[in-house]
Write a structure and sequence with these properties.
Layout (H helix, E strand, L loop, with lengths): L45 H12 L8 E3 H21 L8 H13 L1 H7 L5 H8 L4 H10 L10 E7 L2 E10 L16 H20 L4 H19 L17 E3 H7 L5 H8 L5 E4 L2 H13 L2 H16 L5 H16 L7 H12 L1 H12 L2 H23 L6 H12 L2 E5 L17 H17 L21 E3 L4 E5 L14 H18 L20 H19 L2 E2 L3 E2 L6 H18 L16 H12 L2 E3 L1 H10 L5 H10 L2 H6 L20
Parallel strand pairs: 3-5, 6-8
Antiparallel strand pairs: 1-11, 2-3, 4-5, 7-8, 9-10
Length: about 675
């Protein structure tokens, strides 16, 4: 995965060892045999063989959308953040200090009594501005003015590297304007999609009634908003279309783009936004052409209703209980199947991590992440990088010319592990212990002010796109970097005391996964310096696409939810990364002493243990509502197929578990995916 990332400013950080006192039990068991279902043949469904009993016995907690390895580790990290925040928020901290800001932001969010007293008072100034709008030109002015306060709309504006000149930050404009997850939610006619739209209209109407609008008028406004968003959705590209970096790279002189949007005064809008530039990148020009037309042709009252709803919806989680509950009922229950809301302290710990992540992160890594863990991880990354080099050199389908470029790109990977070397500053953020909504506004203003300063300036490649406690990892193509936050460097992904089969099967496959993103259907289009540039011969590119099509066809046949199919096109990048990741990790594992031995642990050979560790990483149980949304939106395949898909293509897996023709996962060698 990759994403736009915030600026990181310079601050020194020292690190102490985490608590390793004798009262902390040392883990000795690294694969949970009790979760297996050995009545299932490994060659029929390895995911269920490794995890089946756990899946059968596990109940997803009412407050969760899914439950398993990623989620339990994230919850553990939230608990650790909670300990930190409980501690710092109880102290009399120096004004302006890291501790004061994170502690008081947490305390303000926990102060629900003050939040209840305010009701929806915090959003009334924005609602008054919307009410004063007389025509669409006023609306555009209001939308542009709002960016500085974190309330901008209509324009999907952000700042990040120019994909073709990755050393320079530029202004980007992407499609926006809809609230449901993707365009298809507005057009699908199946019963589940219809139910979501019906519930969405009820949710919109409910927010209006909270502001004093009568039920009949609120319902009419809600119907109009759905109609308007449906018209907007017609202009949107699909998630599959958004995967094409060339199609979504459209550079314009501002004066030239103005001609495509004659009724929106871009010069005035940009001035109000504080944006000074002659050139912009537009991801999806079709949206902006449609917006120009819709602003003129749709009733201004409908646009004002939509702006009002967006303001209420955006602020709902920071307002009183009726707003919070309504927000959860739609986004949590309807879209994701959650039964109850998370405990308030969990929400607030996550909120502080999201809002002041690199202040809280400094405290987190000092307490919970050790320098030796970082070094161990770096060693693993270097080992896998060496294996990837060997595999590229030995590819039988790629020409020497393209191999040379691929190897140069691999060698140029930047490796970020644990936490930033430079920490972001929040000096202009003002946090009060009794003003939660205003605190959120201050953070939003800070983020925008920081972002707008980057326009047309050199890219700072030290910045991070995830906070240290995050249980995830990513590859960023314009930085050509692989990033592993401290949060994921824990069991079941990584444990410094685990045997190599476990670490290589788990975090090793994650490392290989992120490396392979540099050479997936999107990443392969960026060169070693992070520029969107074609460095492939036509023949090699054609061979790549032909091999990837085999994988797309494989995954298209996988089904969930009574016949809903995985989208092989949408998931191709992640599937390539999964297939490449486990293959690279296995080869690296075979270079270790354990990988060369046949000594069993827990009754399993080293190779068997490697693949079981891989399956344990993807041990996850998901609600049907969440899975349905994932299939429509998520570029990752469901966990069963993130396990079985890559292993069905891996010769070493066949040998380790004696997979033979007739087994359900068996594929003839000619039908297996062979890319990286």
């Amino acid at each position: 995965m990759w994403l736009a990332v915030p600026v990181v400013m310079v601050t020194a950080c020292t690190h102490k060892s985490a608590d390793t006192s004798s009262d902390v039990p040392k883990r000795t068991v690294f694969f949970e045999k009790s979760g297996m279902d050995t009545t299932i043949k490994p060659g029929d469904d390895f995911f269920s063989y490794a995890n089946g009993k756990w899946i059968k016995d596990t109940q997803i907690p009412p407050s969760e959308r899914e439950w398993g390895s990623f989620v339990t580790l994230s919850n553990d990290n939230i608990k650790n953040l909670h300990l930190i925040l409980d501690d710092v928020s109880a102290k009399d901290n120096t004004a302006g200090s890291n501790e004061q800001k994170v502690g008081d932001l947490y305390k303000s969010g926990m102060d629900t009594a003050s939040i209840e007293k305010l009701g929806y008072e915090p959003v009334k100034p924005v609602l008054a501005k919307i009410s004063a709008v007389k025509d669409y030109k006023d609306l555009v002015k209001l939308a542009a003015d709002g960016f500085k306060d974190g309330d901008g709309f209509l324009l999907g504006f952000y700042v990040s590297p120019d994909d073709r000149i990755s050393s320079k930050n530029v202004a980007h404009f992407d499609q926006t304007g809809i609230t449901l997850p993707t365009r298809d939610y507005y057009f699908k006619t199946d019963s589940a999609s219809k139910k979501i739209r019906d519930e969405y209209v009820k949710y919109i109407a409910k927010l209006f009634t909270f502001t004093g609008v009568d039920a009949a008028t609120a319902a009419k406004k809600a119907d109009g908003i759905l109609k308007l968003e449906t018209a907007i959705a017609l202009s949107h590209l699909t998630p599959v279309e958004l995967r094409d970096p060339v199609k979504n790279y459209n550079k314009f002189a501002v004066t030239a783009f103005q001609k495509q949007m004659p009724d929106i005064d871009l010069a005035d809008a940009f001035n109000r936004m504080g944006l000074k530039t002659d050139t912009i990148l537009v991801g999806q020009p079709g949206y902006y052409k449609a917006l120009d037309n819709l602003l003129k042709t749709q009733p201004i009252d409908m646009w004002k209703d939509k702006a009002t709803f967006n303001a209420l919806d955006d602020g709902a989680t920071s307002l009183d209980k009726q707003f919070r509950d309504a927000h959860f009922d739609f986004y949590g229950k309807i879209l994701n199947g959650q039964k109850v809301q998370k405990e308030r302290w969990k929400l607030m710990a996550s909120n502080v991590d999201g809002g002041l992540g690199e202040l809280l992160g400094q405290i987190y890594v000092e307490k919970y992440f050790t320098p030796d863990a970082k070094q161990h991880m770096l060693d693993l990354v270097n080992n896998l990088q060496a294996v990837y080099k060997d595999r590229i050199e030995k590819l039988d389908w790629m020409s020497p010319e393209t191999k040379k470029q691929a190897l140069a790109k691999l060698a140029a990977f930047t490796k970020k592990i644990g936490y930033p070397d430079k920490w972001k500053k929040y000096d202009d953020v003002e946090i009060s212990k009794d003003a939660y909504y205003k605190n959120q506004e201050s953070i939003s203003k800070h983020n925008y002010a920081e972002m707008i300063k980057k326009v047309n300036k050199p890219v700072d490649r030290t910045e991070w796109g995830m906070t240290p406690p995050t249980v995830n990892a990513y590859y960023n193509p314009t930085f050509n970097e692989i990033v592993f936050p401290a949060g994921i460097l824990q069991f079941p992904f990584f444990d410094k005391d685990a045997d190599d089969a476990i670490n290589y099967g788990a975090i090793g496959a994650v490392i290989g996964h992120e490396m392979t993103h540099g050479f997936d259907d999107q990443g392969r289009q960026y060169d070693k310096d992070g520029n969107l540039k074609d460095w492939w011969t036509k023949d090699d590119a054609d061979k790549f696409k032909k091999r990837v099509q085999v994988m797309i066809d494989q995954y298209d046949k996988f089904t969930v939810l009574n016949g809903v199919h995985v989208n092989g096109q949408l998931t191709q990048g992640e599937n390539l990364a999964d297939n490449g990741g486990v293959a690279i990790a296995y080869q690296a594992f075979k270079n270790t002493p354990q990988g060369k031995s046949d000594t069993k642990i827990d009754g399993f050979t080293p190779d068997q243990r490697f693949f079981l560790a891989f399956a344990q990483v993807w041990r996850l149980k998901t609600r049907d509502e969440t899975m349905r949304m994932r299939i429509n939106l998520d570029p990752h395949s469901p966990e069963q197929y993130r396990t079985n898909g890559p292993l069905s293509n891996n010769p070493a897996f066949y040998k380790a578990f004696d997979i033979k023709p007739g087994d359900k996962m068996y594929r003839a060698e000619a039908d297996r995916v062979k890319v990286w």
